[in-house]
Amino acid sequence: MVERIAANMKDMILGGQDGLVNVLGVILGIAAATSDMRIILAGGFAATFAESISMAAVAYTSTIASVDYYESTKKNEERSIEENPEMEIQKIRDVYAARGFEGDLLDQIVTKITSDKTRWVEVMMLEELRLSPATKNGALWSALIVGLSAMVGSFVPLVPFFFFSVKAGVIVSLIVSSLALFGAGAFKAKITVGYWLKSGIQMLVIGLVSALLGYYIGYLFS
User: Fold this and answer.
1) Do 13 and 188 touch, CB atoms closer than 8 A?
2) Over the stretch 195-218, which tens digit does the pLDDT of each residue have?
3) Which long-range contacts (CB under 8 A, 24 or more apart) does 216-221 make?
């Protein structure tokens, strides 16, 4: 379970943080310009659904673009191996020589890799070009995770306005959003790498600075 969450952490953070920060900024901006709760909630809901759909679409298209780029680069690498095998063999040799292999062992590694074209191409893609294989099947999953995370994140700053006045709602929304941002950053560090306190503060500062810009823009029109 933890491994599955860690594997999807990038999409979850991308969607959740973006949804929370954007909707918080929109709500604070509207609240600074007007005290009409209906307008604040309408703007918040509009931003929530627009942001969720937009982020899901971006996640899908970016994943498809990454797959297309990988496949295109892979075909170029295959063609290069066919047209300039000596040069590509030397590239393999250079990669593993840089890692400290030498002599007969280096020769054996190069011979083993280049004896199979599929393996040869895969090694070149990963070791030389730093590209990992991706599939279009993962595009829908990525879009779903990002979209749902964006929606969940968007509701964090919005919910307090159902229970409090505008002024109190702004304060509670900032507190809840701050806790959520800090918690998300700390959780990310806990299941991946990094110091939880530093990661939490980092995400908190980035999120609040971005959201408060929305407040000041709204304040200019108040």
Assistant:
1) yes
2) 777 877 887 888 778 777 877 787
3) 216/32, 217/29, 218/28, 218/29, 218/30, 218/31, 218/32, 218/33, 219/29, 219/32, 219/33, 221/32, 221/33
Of 121, 136, 61, 69, which is closest to residue 91 (Cα–Cα)?
121
Q: How far apart are CA 163 and CA 215, in angstroms?
A: 21
Contacting residues for 139 by C-beta, under 8 A, at least 6 apart: 59, 60, 63, 64, 67
Cα dist from 121 to 67, 84, 99, whole Å: 16, 13, 19
60-66 average pLDDT score: 86
Q: How many CB atoms lie within 10 A of CB 220?
A: 10
């901006």: which residue's tokens? 29
Rounded to whole angstroms, the Cα distance separating 142 from 9 reads 11
N- to C-terminal Cα distance for the chain? Answer: 48
CB-hemisphere CA count at 13 Å for 132?
1
Distances (CA, A) of 178 to 10, 100, 110, 155, 201: 20, 48, 53, 13, 10
AA identity, residue 69 = Y
Backbone angles phi, psi at 134, to 5 degrees: -140, 155
pTM: 0.72
